[in-house]
Amino acid sequence: MRAWMKSGTPWVWITAGMVSVSLIAILGVLLLIGARGLGYFWPTPITQFTLNTPEGQETVIGQIYQTDRVDATQLQDAGITLPEDATPDYARLVVKIGNREREGVDFRQLLAFNIRSQYTPASLAMIERVENGVFYGWPVALVDEKGTRHRLDEADLEARLDALSARRDVIDDIERVHLASVNYQLEQLRLEEKRWALAHTANREPPAHIAEQRAQLLDQYSQLEKKLESLRHHQDDAMLVVKDSHHEEVLLPLRNVLAVWYPNAMSGIEKLLFWGHQIGAFVSEPPRDGNASGGVFPAIFGTVFLVLLMAVIVTPLGVIAAVYLHEYAPKTAFTRMIRIAVVNLAGVPSIVYGVFGLGFFVYFIGGSIDELFYQAAQPAPVFGTPGVLWSALTLAILTLPVVIVSTEEGLARIPTSVRHGAFALGATQAETLWRVVLPMASPAMMTGLILAVARAAGEVAPLMLVGVVKVAPALPVDGNFPFLHLERKFMHLGYHIYDLGFQSTHIESARPLVYATSFLLVSVIVALNLAAIGIRHYLREKYRDLEQ
C-alpha cells in the first residue's frame, strides 16, 4: 500500500476524478441553461381549465409554466378551504394566462383540487402582439376598416398580417435609416455652423452652402414624413375579434398583432418549424415591450463588437509590454516588482476598473477631447460621456495582465539558441524579435487573447459605468460617415440578462428569456474562443519548423 501511495498513482486517479466532476458540472450547467432557454420557444399547449370557486365555476386559459407542491399549512394560513381528505401538501400549477391589459397579471396559480376539468381545444389561439405580450383566446371574427364584421377567414387574416408586417418593416426602415441619416446630417450642419460662428466672431453669418444643404435636408425630411404618414394611414385599421376566458368578445387592433398561432392543432413538424422561427426571431429582431419580448440582436451585435474592439486594443498593448519586460528590461528588483504588480492587477475587482474607466477615460480623456475638438457641440458631450470606445478600453485594461503573462510565458519557452542563431546570421535584435521570436510566440499570444475574450465577454459591472444601456437608439455602426461611431452607447447580452432578471416590469414573464439570453451569451463566447483557438492552431502548425 505504501509503495502504491509513493508511486503517485492515487494522485493521478484523484486528479482525473476531480477533472471529471468539473466537466460533468460544467456540462450540467450548460444543459440546464440550454434546456430552459431553448425550451422556452417550443409551442406549449394552451389549456382550458374549469375551476370550482366559492363564487361558482370559472374558466381559465393559458400555458402551464411549472408544477410544484405547496404545504397544506401554508394554504390554511392563507385562508384557503382544503378538501376533506387532507394531505400534507397539494399540487399547484403556475399558468401563464397572458391578456395583460384585462387580467392585470401574467401568471396565475391554480390548486389541483380546485380544477374540475382541463383540456386543450384545437381552436384556442396564442396571439403574439407588439405590446402587452400574448393574448389567449378563440378568434371568431374580423371587423374591417369600415366597421363591418366578417366571419374569420384564416387565409385572409394571414394575408393581412403579412401585409402589415411588410409595411411595418418599411416604416421601421424609414425611421431607423433614412430619417436617422437626415437627422444626423442636420446635426452635422448645426455643428459646422456653430464652429464657423466660434471661429469668425466678427462675422457670424454662416456660409451660403450651409443654408442650401439645410434647406435640401429639410425638404427631404418633409418628404419622408409625408411618406411615413401615408404608410401609417394605410396601416390596416381592422380589428380581430377574440373571445377570452370570460366568454367576452375583445377587439384587438390588427396593427398590434404580429402572428396568430394554434399550438394545440400543430403537428410535430409544425411545432419544430415554429420553434425554429421563434429562435430565428429572437436572434435577429430588436427587443420590444420593455425588453420583455422580442429579440436581442442589438445586444448580440454590441457584445461581439465590444469584444473585437477590446481584442484589437489589448493585443498590441499586452504584446509590447511583455516583449519589453522579457527582452529589453534589465533583470532588477524594479522589474520584478512590475511583474508582481501585473499579476496582482488580474485580481482587482472588475467594478474598480469601471470606476477607473469612468473617471479617467470618460471624464478626463473624453472631456479633454470634447474641449479641444468638439467645442461646437457644447454643452452636450460627444466623447465625454460613456460609450463603446471607453468600454473597450476599460475591458482592455482589465484583461491586459492576462495577455502580458501569457505572452511572456511564450517568450520564455523559446530557446536562447534560436536567438543566438539569428544573431550569428547577421540579424539585429529587432529583426530577430520580429521575424523569429514573435512568430514562434504567437500561439501563446493567442492563448492570452482567448483568456481575455472569455473574461471580457461576460463582464457587466464595469460596463454599467462606461457605456452599456438598457435600450440603445442606434447601433455603433451605420451608413453615416464615419460609419464607425465609437462614442455611442450600446447594448450587451450580460446587461440584458441583468435587466430581464431584476429590472423588468414583467419579471415572471421575462424570466425564461434570462435562460435563453444566458445560453446565447455562452454560445457567443464559445464561438469567439473557437475562432481564436483555430487561429492559434494555424499559427502553431505554421511555425512548428522554427521550433525544431
UniProtKB/TrEMBL annotation:
Gene name as annotated: pstA
Keyword vocabulary terms for this entry: Cell membrane, Membrane, Transmembrane, Transmembrane helix, Transport
Locations listed in the record: Cell inner membrane; Cell membrane
Membrane topology type: Multi-pass membrane protein
Species the sequence originates in: Salinivibrio costicola
Residue intervals of the ABC transmembrane type-1 domain: 300-532
Family: Belongs to the binding-protein-dependent transport system permease family. CysTW subfamily.
InterPro entries referenced in this protein's UniProt entry, alphabetically: MetI-like (IPR000515), MetI-like_sf (IPR035906), Phosphate_PstA (IPR005672)
Family annotation (SUPFAM superfamilies): MetI-like
The protein, known as: Phosphate transport system permease protein PstA
Lineage: superkingdom: Bacteria
Transport is among the record's keywords: yes
Region forming the signal peptide: none
Major localization listed first in the record, in broad terms: membrane
Segments traversing the membrane: 12-42, 296-325, 337-365, 388-411, 432-454, 513-535
